[in-house]
Design a protein that fits this description.
Layout: E1 2-6, H1 20-24, E2 29-31, H2 51-64, E3 70-75, H3 78-89, E4 93-99, H4 110-129, E5 134-135, H5 148-155, E6 161-162, H6 164-167, H7 174-177, E7 181-186, H8 198-206, E8 210-215, H9 221-224, H10 226-239
Parallel strand pairs: 1-2, 1-3, 3-4, 4-7, 7-8
Antiparallel strand pairs: 5-6
Length: 251
Amino acid sequence: MQFVLLHGGRHGGWCWKRVTPRLRGEGHEVFTPTLTGLGDRSHLLHPSIGLSTHVEDLVALFEYEDIQDAVLVAHSYGGIVANGAMEEIADRVRYLVYVDAQLPRTGESMLDLVGPEGAEKMRAVVDEQGEGWYLPPTDASYWGITDPADLAWMNNRITAQPFKTYTDPVGPTDRAWAHPGLFIECAMPLQAFPIPLDRARERNRVDERFDYQVLNTGHDAPITAPDELARMLLAAGKAAVGPGCRQGVGG
């Protein structure tokens, strides 16, 4: 089975470093792309990078790596990218897993999802510290990280985020919303950056192809709970093979 692990804002493919060995150890192929302008691609940071750039990054990965029948895992901001990309890659995705991720509908941006207060705070930071076009790197404690070693490791890797990726509205998301999947809630709330969980819970109540589970850790689960998260992803992959899930692939 193939797993595609998509990171959140100001992170990069590096954030899955503790999860990938556990998936590969079970014989699975794993991809951990880094979106343009972030992580090991931060040298490409530019004001023109928008949400469509990141959607194209993910679509291109599927095309050039010939990824088929994959479990697509999206963390945090990665949920917006995944939902946008699903219009083109849904036929290649067996199952869609959101890890404490944004779950937008057509036409919504990250700023819409975090709400007026959160959007105002972000804009202020961008204006004051990001030259009006990027969110600067922040200390990992922002995402609830407390372990000193984890803080040091992450703070050396967290990068700026082109703000256009947060202000751009996502395109059509119908195929993502019609796709079988799972939402994993990280139970320790993230006060600085709220995740609108009501939408995932609502979908779970009305869609028998969509599951909802809780992981007792902070928002950055790939860092703080890699064993538990890997087990949940492996279980999701196995469940997706069963009757009912497969028939929903493709939206």
